[in-house]
Amino acid sequence: MAKYESPDRVVIALGGNALGDTPEEQIARVREAAPTLLKVIEMGNEIIITHGNGPQVGMIQNAFATAHEVDAKYPLIDLPECGAMSQGYIGYHLQQAIGVAMHKAYKRWHVATVVTQIEVDPDDPAFLNPTKPIGVFLTEAQAAAEKAEHPDWTLVEDSGRGYRRVVASPVPRKIVEADSIINLLDDEFIVIACGGGGVPVVRDYNDKGAYKGVAAVIDKDMAGELLAEDCRADMLVLLTAVEHVAINFGKPNQEDLTDITADQAREYADAGQFGKGSMEPKVRAARTTEASPRLVSPSLALPEGPPMWRAFFCCEARHRARPTHVRALSLST
Question: Residues with catalytic annotation?
């Protein structure tokens, strides 16, 4: 990453489920992944890493809820703080893993995690229809008690398994720490940012317009797209854990996708060809980054990755002069 070169800038999004369910699993998996990330740099690219945090933020929130149930002196911690905690500890594990890989490869690059806030619109329609379940399952009596204590919460019955709190999933509008992220990139840092979609915040005009956290969940793939835009990235790479991106997935007529146009991606998504909470957000995020519906060849081919990196979308960012594509590629051996 020498200063006299002009490397491509690549945003790589790791899924939260690919990081495992425990800190021990996470450490093992990011250490397995780190050498591949370094290879992307060695190919002449700058990288920005973002990641999911679904299992991790749930673990943090459930731990505090359990402690509070045992002893009320331990406070309940709401979603913005749990999201920030997850960004910190996932970022720490990634920094450690990349550091180990750099040491073994005799590299002297720098890596830093930015605990990231993302501004959302307080009038986003999603706040009127919260759908993202969070936290532990509750009995009807527990749900009634929580509702009495927190009148602004929305609690719904979940498929006969009990009641859960649901929160909104608003559209990300602005990365608060964008300038800090860009400054680190310009100083040749490997940057980890926007983990779990970032901490959703809104302006508090009762506090001179300062930001305050809101209990919501930003889709991590849409946050990754916004990160690519703000960093003027040359490519956004969305990693998945399936063998291949496909239409008619799991059916006898399953068709694996390779290169498709942005319009085709939209048509498939609108037709319900992709999982609502899994593949569809990736397709829509990849398409949002497009500047033209024309198809082109990719400018990056990732090296072979660990087993949980089965397939990925890559697309060139909107600021690029040349046309873009949505491409699904296999990383499986």
Answer: 16-17, 132, 220, 282
